[in-house]
Amino acid sequence: MKYHLLLLGFCLSLSSIAQIKVQSPTIHYVSNWDLEEVKSIALGEKILFQQNCSPGLPENITNGVVFFENVYLEEERISVTITFKDTVVVGLTFHLKAKQYHVLSELGFEEIIGNTTTSKKSWTSTYIQDGITSVIVADRKKIVVVQSYNDREGG
């Protein structure tokens, strides 16, 4: 009996692991875009993303991840990932070089405060405001800002 329960538990754990899925970008979009245009996109906004850069993909993207490689703030170039679900923006990720820390203020992070931890010349900061969780992760080479809805608040 113990053997059957152990086998059942093992099978259930494999089943739950199989359900974890990392969604890679649907489209790697290489285009010049202004950061002000990206900042106008808000979490929860309904957007029908129309693409014409990848002939093998549908013209209208309602679900998926779109990676924009060339987003400019004056001379600074960053990358942005936008995650859609049923035409709703559910996630924004900003990819910066470590020396572009000043761009954080353009994204609405005037001061790096919050739950900050430091380890081996890297740091993480977490902000929760208006039902949106923002996590900033940085090391010597890069800074990544991930914004998504906080499911525990109001949702």
Brief account:
Residues 1-18 form the signal peptide. Keywords: Signal. The chain has 155 residues and is α+β, with helices and mostly antiparallel strands.
Structural account:
- It is a single chain.
- The chain has helices spanning 2-18, 35-39, 103-106, and strands at residues 27-34, 49-50, 60-61, 64-73, 76-85, 88-97, 117-119, 122-129, 132-138, 142-149.
- The protein has 155 residues and is α+β, with helices and mostly antiparallel strands.
- It has one domain (23-149).
- The strands form 2 sheets. The chain has an 8-stranded mixed sheet with strand order 1-4-5-6-10-9-8-7.
- Strand 5 (76-85) and strand 6 (88-97) form a beta hairpin.
- Keywords: Signal.
Largest sheet: 8 strands, mixed
Main structural class:
alpha+beta
The Cα radius of gyration reads 19 Å
Tally of DSSP β-strands: 10
Mean pLDDT: 73
Please list the strands of the largest sheet in the order they lie side by side.
1-4-5-6-10-9-8-7
Q: What proportion strand?
A: 35-45%
| Unreliable sequence segments | 1-22
Spatial separation of the terminal alpha carbons: 42 Å
Determine the number of helices (DSSP H or I, runs of at least 4 residues). 3
Q: What proportion of the residues is helical, as a percent range?
A: 10-25%
As for the number of domains, it is 1
Give the oligomeric state: single chain
What overall form do the CA principal axes indicate?
A: globular
Q: What's the SSE pattern?
A: HEHEEEEEHEEEE
Keywords: Signal
Signal peptide: 1-18
Characteristic key phrases:
alpha+beta, eight-stranded mixed sheet, 17% helix, 155 residues, globular, 10 strands
